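Q: I have 230 residues here and want to know how they pack in 3D. Can you give me a structure?
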Amino acid sequence: VDHHVDGCKELIEIHGRTMLQRTIDELRAADVDGIVIVTSPKKPALRERLEESGQLERGDIEFVEQMSPLGLVHALDLARSVCGDEMLTAAPDNLYVGHPCPAIELLKVFDRGQCAVIGVVQVVRPWGSLLSDVGRIDALYDSPHNALRMVSGIKGKRKKSPFPIRDPPHWRCTGRMLLTSRFWEEPEGDDVQMLDSLAAVGELVAAPIAAAYIDIGLPEGLAYANSRLN
């Protein structure tokens, strides 16, 4: 399976639309105020493709360059220079089959809770068997103050182990987060460590997304998506 287009996983097409375009369409459908794309000097094709397709004419997209691959938190920190502390993040290598706009689910929950939100899915076969054990949630519990589902904690990353499939299913974080200034007050770490710190003090809310979650960033995930949608 071809896992890059012009050196960019974001330009892989699924059912006639690139993953980058799918993500932009989702954010626009959610009526976000603007879109910041964190790119790198090695991916000029991202901007070129959007220019060619006329997607930049609306004026709602800005670019920030991450000069070295220093991880997700560093990339989000760069985006803060444009959008500020509060941001809805959307990883363009995550495909949600069966839900038209996962970002809307996070915004609905944020409107009720006014704190950090993560999109979560229940991991089931067959697509769940393609995932590594990353982003697994300890448990969700009901807030005593409202009807929100709170995250009790997030397990550490075990990238070389398969995600454990069980009945009832585990919940897993996905590539959708809504961060507030509170997130940036946590001790420095990777995204899972910082979110887990928020969960420990009761300040991380889950937004369940009813969809099959496919990680296009994995060759196996891309092959599965192509078999399902192409």
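Q: Anything worth noting?
A: The helical segments are 19-29, 44-53, 72-83, 102-113, 191-200, 219-229. The two ends are 13 Å apart (CA to CA).
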